[in-house]
Structure formats: structure tokens, C-alpha cells
Write a structure and sequence with these properties.
687 residues; alpha+beta; 8-stranded parallel β-barrel; globular
């Protein structure tokens, strides 16, 4: 990082991000793109006179952190109301503080005792810039924050830009959409108290000519597991910017004198090497810097839900565990139905101890059996929820989100606990901590099976609309404390599938349950979209009975082997032939998961996925015929990620070619409809 009095340059391995103060005192973005040879090659802050009387200079400049105030009329990052009714900010540069790790830009209001700190942290090896904001009320009177975004990202002016984003719904997540941005504001958001199935806090921007392997890409993600907002704005002056942060819908935060508020982090980066390289930069960052257990591959699990639903007991689970172990499973997960009074989805949530009728000796005998079979033991919980038919609800009916004069809406027969309440947090920490202390549990599936309603609470410490943030802060406290006390446990984030997949939750959970939809063809699309932002190691993918009898077992395994492999079918009904085939694919996956989970991922269209070890010596290729009407039986793909000057061989092919040749020519795979293949790739030698 380099700075002068008025200019700051943040360089990563291949990119640069620059901003500075112009002669009129505006803090503006000056450059974001490919790294230049010399520091003097970067542009300096520009000046403008504005556009007649209707548009001030602020409306024409790419301000780093525009605020609501003065004659600014586009999307601001910060809006504040003062105690005297003034709703205007006038911030001026005060000072800066830099280290080898980050830059702090300190701004102050010209009248009120209010300090704003803009933080910048480059993640050099990943071509990423991390930004967040701190607001400090240095006065005595309270103020109200009505909007606070973490960053606004600016793109070179006078270009037509295209926005790629992920959308969907329950059971149909992670659809990839790419659309042209036009004058105005395009909003993506969640208002559901989770990051949601419906949009994901991630984006990519290009100028319309980018591919997987070529083209300028600006990309980013927001590390927050609650309500969020992305505003992609094209101004009337041909400037395009994206703002990201906590959603300001129904939000307010009362900041008392002497208090501060710190936003979650927004991350963004640039590459000139297409969508694929942008994804791989995020993948590497998540694997190596975000998830708790970093570069440790994940075990193959079996989840017993489809086999037994709520009808669980020690005997039935032990039998399933025996079959799972016989086909090579390494982690046995007991799903819903194990805890007190849980015989269906109408009762029991909140009472987190083993049901004495189902497990009269507790969970330890089953866990001992599972461990003797050579597997770890995992457990399903849904801590944020409570059924009205539970001891917890009967004892604390006001611990849920609710409004006093409104009926309490049920969804899946359950209410949402107010995670903002310290007493709720303490209760959950105590119950789950005891569960983990008393039992040898290696894996926890943390579920959340509904979205918010009646987001109210009694006697909030500040503005009632703080609930959206305080809820997530409470969630992070509970989960974080449990992770601290039980650091070896692997946690999975599940919210009816992909309803809470984001960089915030991945600081706590190593894996994401991507979708409740386990149909193989649907999963190819879902997994393709998921891969735009998140690495294969975080993508839990099961072989279930959803396509049993419709698609070959090999096809279903190949789809699930593209991520962190799991089995979810009813093994009691699988015949010997199915179990033997499953054992074969599980064995192959064990030999290949280091490449799949820890290597680089290359999308070769919706019908093929390739993984390469980081040294480019070994690879795994999956090719699928998806059976579309009129589709030929030949699937053509072109490899990526090979060393151009090395030679390679592909399993099933006699030819040995250079990496350059393989990446320059189509390879034909003859596959019937709904047929798939797995091929290993091996480097022979460097030319």
C-alpha cells in the first residue's frame, strides 16, 4: 500500500484499487482494475464543476463513501438523524492511519461530534479488497442510523455493464442470472432475517464480452447472515456503482453518546481472466482464510433422515450405521426426531436433550456403536426455533419474536426465538454445550426451517428496528461461543437448504447444505450457480432416493461427488448391487477428494466440471449428458487449468498431449441420455 497526503494505492498480486481526495475535499475512487507497472501510472483525483444548478459535483463524482446530505441525490452509504432533527451529513477528511495490513480513513462531521472510519484491507494473494465502516458518536446526545452500507464500489465510467447474480427460492436455489444494467437502481436483497434462498449476497460485473476464461470481471460478496441489500446503480452521468451492506428496510439503530457501530465486511476483487478466475479467487480465499478448519478435507457422511424420518431410536439407527459403515461412510449423522417429545414437526423444538422413550440410555450407546464401526457421529439441531408444544415455550412464551397485539404466526408449526435476547443466547449455549460435553459428537447440522414474521420484542435496548442486526449478532455469539468451546466439531449451515449461505456464516460453519432438492439434474444447475461464489469443499451434496429407479446410481454419485459427498437414501431398501456400487464410488471419491475439495474448480458448461490440484499435476473430470430433447449423444468439452508446457493423459484416452493442445481442442465424449462419466487427468512430464 502506498499513500500521499491525498492519494492511496492498494495493490494486490494482479490488481489495484486507488482513491484520493480532490481539490474540493471529496474522497473519490480513482482506479480499480489491472495492476500497473508504476505507481505514477495510476490516475489522480479528478475535479468537476457539476452540471448546471441541478447536479452538484457530488452527483458526478465517484465518491468512496457518499452520505445523505447536501445536494447529493444518488444512493448514499450512510444516513443519520441527529437529536435536533437534522438529517444531513457533512463529512470532511480528518486524518488517516495506515499499516502493512490496512488503511483507516477518518472523517468527521463539520458540526456534530461524529466520527466515521473507513477501513480498507487488501488480501493480496486473492486479489481482494475488504472494506468495512465504523461510526462513533463522540457526543452526549443519541443519534439514529437509518442506513449504513459497508462499501460502494465504482467501475470505470462510460461503459455498458452486465450484472451476474444468484436468485431462486426454496428447493430451487442458485439460479445464475446475467442482465444488462440500465439507468436507475437494481436492488437485490433479503428481508427474511437470513441471507435467504431468494438472492445471495454476491455479484459479478462485466462489460458484456467476458467468458469463463477471458474478460474483465469485478466481483464481490458480503459477509453477513441477515438482512442485506445490494444496490447496482447507473447514474444519468454514465457512472456505475454497487453499494453493499445491511438492509435499510425497516432498520434503525440508536447510537448513544460514546457508542460505536461497526458494519460487516464487504469483499470485492478484479480479474482480467473471466468468470472462472473470479470464482477461483473467492474459492481460495474461503478455503484458506474463512472456514474454520481451512484446508482440511471433509469426511463422507450418511444422514438417516430419509430412512426413518421422526421414527428414530437406538436400534434403527444402529442398523443404518452398520450398513453405512459397510459401504465406506466415515460420518453417521442422526437427523431430526432424537430429542424430547419429538414425534413430528409439531412439538419438541427447544428441548435439546434426548427423548427418554427413544433413547432411554441417552445417545452414548449409539455413539459408541457408531465409533466402533469406525465412523464419527453427527447430530441435527435447530436452535433458533421453538414449538409452542415444548417445555421451553411453556416456560418462556415471550422469548420468541412477536408483537403484543398480533397473533403469533406459525410456519412448520414453529416460532422463531429472539436471538437478540441474552437470556435466549445463554439458554442455547448451556443446552448445546452440555450436549457436546456429554457426547462424542464430531459434526453438527444447524438447521433453520422458516423465515421471519412479527419481528418485535419487549423492552428493546434501543430502537425496536435494531432487531434485524441484533438477532444476527446473537446468532454469531451463540454459534461462536460453541465453536470456541468445541473447536474440533465440524458445523454445517442449513436453512431448508441454501437459505443461509454467505461469507458471514462460513466463519462459523465449514459446510453449506445447498438445497433440499436432491434430484441430480436439478442439482447440476444448483451446484453450477453455487460454484460461482463458493468452493466445492463447502458444498454438501448427497446421493438420495430422489431419482432412484430413474437415473443410474453412477450418475447420481457423479453429481454428488462434485462437492463434499454425502449419502441420504434409505440404505435399508438398497439391494446388494446398489450397496456394492455405492462402495465403489465412495472408495474412488476418497482417492480424489483432495483434488475436488482442495483444488481449483473449472466450469466447462452445465454438462461438465473439472478440478485440478493446485500444482496442476492431477485432475478430475465429470461429464454429463443431461438428456435434453434433441441433444446429441456426443458431449464436447475443452479442458482448462492445465500447464501448457506439460503433457497429460486422460483416463480412457490413449493419446498423450500437451496441456496447450488439450486446452485448444474439443474432446468428444459419447454418452447416452442421462449417462455420465468420471475421468482422471494426470500430468506426465514437462516439455
Amino acid at each position: 500500500m502506498e499513500k500521499s497526503i491525498k492519494n492511496w494505492i492498494l495493490e494486490t498480486r494482479n490488481s489495484a484499487y486507488c482513491f484520493g481526495i480532490n481539490d474540493d475535499g471529496y474522497l473519490i475512487n480513482t482506479y480499480w482494475g489491472k495492476r500497473k507497472n508504476k505507481k505514477t501510472d495510476y490516475p489522480l483525483p479528478i475535479h468537476t464543476e457539476g452540471w448546471a444548478s441541478f447536479d452538484s459535483p457530488a452527483n458526478l463524482l465517484p465518491e468512496e463513501f457518499p452520505v445523505y446530505g447536501g445536494a447529493f441525490h444518488f444512493e448514499p452509504c450512510l444516513k443519520i438523524s441527529f437529536a435536533d432533527g437534522v438529517r444531513d451529513l457533512n463529512l470532511k477528511f480528518d486524518s488517516e492511519s495506515s499499516s502493512t495490513e490496512e488503511i483507516k480513513i477518518i472523517l468527521r462531521d463539520i458540526y456534530y461530534p461524529l466520527q466515521i472510519i473507513l477501513y480498507y484491507r487488501p488480501h493480496t494473494d486473492y486479489d481482494l479488497i475488504e472494506r468495512w465502516v465504523e461510526v462513533i458518536n463522540q457526543g452526549k446526545e443519541s443519534i439514529t442510523i437509518e442506513r449504513i452500507f459497508s462499501a460502494q464500489w465504482h467501475f470505470p465510467e462510460n461503459q455498458q455493464y452486465y450484472l451476474s447474480h444468484l436468485s431462486g427460492k426454496w428447493n430451487d436455489e442458485f439460479h445464475l442470472t446475467r442482465e444488462a444494467l440500465t439507468t436507475g437502481v437494481k436492488v437485490l436483497e433479503s428481508r427474511r432475517i437470513t441471507s435467504s434462498h431468494h438472492h445471495n449476497p454476491w455479484f459479478m460485473i462485466d462489460i458484456g464480452n467476458a467468458t469463463e476464461t477471458e474478460g474483465d470481471i469485478w466481483f464481490g460478496a458480503f459477509a453477513w447472515s441477515g438482512n442485506w441489500k445490494l444496490a447496482a446503480e447507473v447514474t444519468n452521468f454514465d457512472r456505475t456503482r454497487i453499494s453493499m451492506g445491511i438492509n435499510d428496510w425497516d432498520f434503525a439503530w440508536r447510537l448513544n453518546g460514546g457508542e460505536n457501530f461497526v458494519t460487516p465486511s464487504a469483499f470485492a476483487g478484479y480479474t482480467e481472466n473471466g468468470f472462472g478466475q473470479a470464482s477461483r479467487a473467492l474459492h481460495s480465499f474461503i478455503r484458506e482464510q474463512v472456514i474454520p478448519h481451512r484446508n482440511n478435507s471433509h469426511k463422507i457422511l450418511y444422514n438417516s433422515w430419509e430412512a426413518t424420518l421422526f421414527d428414530v431410536d437406538e436400534k434403527s439407527q444402529a442398523r443404518l450405521a452398520e450398513i453405512a459403515a459397510s459401504i465406506g461412510v466415515e460420518l453417521f449423522v442422526l437427523d431430526d426426531g432424537w430429542f424430547y417429545n419429538r414425534n413430528g414437526d409439531h412439538a419438541g423444538l427447544g428441548d435439546w436433550w434426548p427423548d427418554p422413550r427413544k433413547f432411554p440410555r441417552g445417545l452414548q450407546p449409539l455413539i459408541k456403536k457408531v465409533n466402533q464401526l469406525g465412523m464419527d457421529f453427527g447430530l441435527w439441531i435447530e436452535p433458533e426455533m421453538v414449538n409452542p408444544d415444548s417445555d421451553l415455550y411453556r416456560g418462556h412464551p415471550n422469548w420468541i419474536l412477536h408483537f403484543l397485539t398480533r397473533e403469533r404466526t406459525l410456519a412448520r408449526n414453529q416460532c422463531i426465538l429472539n436471538m437478540a435476547l441474552p437470556e435466549v443466547q445463554d439458554y442455547l449455549i448451556e443446552k448445546i454445550d452440555r450436549l457436546l460435553k456429554e457426547n462424542n459428537i464430531a459434526f453438527i447440522k444447524w438447521d433453520m426451517n422458516r423465515n421471519v414474521s412479527e419481528p418485535g420484542w419487549l423492552n428493546p435496548p434501543g430502537d425496536p428496528k435494531e432487531i434485524w442486526v441484533r438477532y444476527v449478532q446473537g446468532l454469531y455469539r451463540v454459534w461462536g461461543e460453541l465453536r470456541h468451546r468445541h473447536s474440533d466439531v465440524i458445523w454445517q449451515s442449513c436453512s431448508g437448504g441454501g437459505g443461509r449461505a454467505d461469507l458471514g456464516i462460513l466463519h462459523l460453519a465449514d459446510q453449506i447444505w445447498v438445497s433440499d432438492n436432491t434430484q441430480a439434474l436439478a442439482r447440476l444447475q444448483i451446484q453450477h450457480g453455487f460454484s460461482m461464489a463458493y468452493p466445492a469443499i463447502t458444498m454438501e451434496s448427497w446421493v438420495t432416493d430422489a431419482d432412484r429407479g430413474k437415473l443410474p446410481l453412477s450418475y447420481r454419485f457423479h453429481v454428488s461427488m462434485c462437492g463434499s459427498l454425502g449419502i441420504g437414501g434409505n440404505l435399508l431398501e438398497w439391494g446388494e448391487e446398489e450397496r456394492n456400487e455405492a462402495a465403489y464410488w465412495i472408495s474412488r471419491y476418497k482417492n480424489l477428494r483432495g483434488i475436488i475439495q482442495l483444488g481449483d474448480q473449472y466450469r466447462l458448461g452445465l454438462q461438465a466440471m473439472q478440478y485440478m490440484s493446485r500444482d496442476h499435476q492431477h485432475g478430475v473430470l465429470f461429464v454429463f449428458n443431461v438428456g435434453q430433447p434433441g441433444q446429441a449423444t456426443t458431449v464436447k468439452i475443452r479442458l482448462q487449468g492445465l500447464h501448457p508446457e506439460a503433457t497429460y493423459e486422460i483416463e480412457g484416452f490413449s493419446e498423450i498431449k500437451s496441456g496447450l493442445d488439450f486446452m485448444s481442442e474439443d474432446i468428444d465424449f459419447s454418452l447416452s441420455p442421462f449417462e455420465s462419466t468420471l475421468r482422471e487427468i494426470h500430468q506426465k512430464f514437462i516439455i
